[in-house]
Amino acid sequence: MRDDHSGFSAVRTAIFPVAGLGTRFLPATKTTPKELLPVLDTPLIQYAIDEARDAGIERLVFVSHPSKSAIERHVMDDAALRATLCAKGKDGIAARLEADALQPGDDVVFVMQDAPLGLGHAVLCARNHVLPGPVAVLLPDDLILGPQGCLSEMIAAYGQIGAGHLVAAEEVARAATGSYGILDVSRRAGAVSSARGIVEKPAPETAPSTTAVVGRYILDPVIFSDLSWQQAGTGGEIQLTDAIARGIARVGLAGFTFSGRRFDCGSKAGMLQAVLHVAGLDPECRDVLHGFGRNRLVTAA
Ligand code: G1P
């Protein structure tokens, strides 16, 4: 294992909690896992995998559910499908599928979270499957697009920050604090917000700030022992936020303001914005958008 100059270990493992029921997207998610919903032609999970691989992650741990075996079928290579495509002269798409897919020799683990006990419980399910050192957690619902991957940026910053827990952070409207983990910020310096606390989904009146956690985390390994003691919190679920809070005194916590644009693809509005954004970057689809007179929606970022 590599240690960088500041003494922080390399981030070698990415955990993808993908066991959730996707109730906000029913009926689309009745049989299709929400992580396989497409942004144009690419499922959400693919963006998260690409982001982790671009960040140099060695091991990918998917915390899934027995009813969501389609996720495994998507992320792993399908040589028979590629052979069929090549036989039909569709070598281009076959090559793309091969590049996107994880291969049998890759370091990939699927572990099942049988009961919907919360995000903290999902991360705890990965405990016996991670490599030594801090771990990354990526929530595929939060699609973050930009010139540099959010996790790459966070890993580059991690060793310099001096906090064992680093979370992706974004300012939200005060009215929206009840949808996020919210940081109690003690100091802001550039992209880094040092935090003395974190609270899960506080009401706007009691929220300690409007700096929200979005779905990218780098967590010191103490998270696993802290999660093992964690009682159910908000919503009756074992919250990752609460276990992060327990570790602050020992390892520190900071928020990181990433450069990309984040889309909440767990909501219809966020998914629509993501599709319009990606369509606006695609020559063929951009013409369709112009046809609808909606190109003004996709000009940002
Ligand atoms: C989860 C976390 C929350 C975080 C959010 C980011 O909530 O519990 O702290 O801010 O992801 O998307 P969920 O959206 O799963 O309810």
Q: How would you sum up this structure, described in words?
A:
It is built from ten helices and 13 strands. The strands form three sheets. Strands 5-4-1-6-11-8-12-10-9 form a nine-stranded mixed β-sheet, with helices on both faces. A two-stranded antiparallel sheet has the order 2-3. It has 301 residues and is α/β, with parallel strands linked by helices. It has one domain: Alpha-Beta Complex (Spore Coat Polysaccharide Biosynthesis Protein SpsA, Chain A), CATH 3.90.550.10. β9 and β10 (192-200) form a beta hairpin. Mean pLDDT is 93; it is low at 1-6. The chain is 33% helix and 24% strand. The protein binds 1-O-phosphono-alpha-D-glucopyranose (G1P).
CATH topology: Spore Coat Polysaccharide Biosynthesis Protein SpsA, Chain A
- Classified by CATH, the class is Alpha Beta
Mean pLDDT reading: 93
Instruction: Give me the CATH superfamily.
Output: Spore Coat Polysaccharide Biosynthesis Protein SpsA, Chain A
Q: What is the number of independent domains?
A: 1
Question: Radius of gyration over alpha carbons?
Answer: 19 Å
End-to-end CA span? 36 Å
What attributes characterize this protein structure?
single chain, 10 helices, alpha/beta, Spore Coat Polysaccharide Biosynthesis Protein SpsA, Chain A, 301 residues, globular, binds 1-O-phosphono-alpha-D-glucopyranose, 13 strands
Topology readout:
Layout: E1 13-17, E2 38-39, E3 42-43, H1 44-54, E4 59-64, H2 69-75, H3 79-87, H4 91-100, E5 108-112, H5 119-125, E6 135-138, E7 142-145, H6 150-161, E8 165-171, E9 181-189, E10 192-200, E11 211-219, H7 222-228, H8 240-251, E12 253-257, E13 261-264, H9 268-280, H10 283-292
Parallel strand pairs: 1-4, 1-6, 4-5, 8-12
Antiparallel strand pairs: 2-3, 6-11, 7-13, 8-11, 9-10, 10-12
Helix pairs in contact: 3-4, 5-7, 5-8, 7-8
Bound molecules: 1-O-phosphono-alpha-D-glucopyranose.
1-O-phosphono-alpha-D-glucopyranose is lined by residues 119, 139, 142, 180-181, 200, 212-215, 239-241, 266.
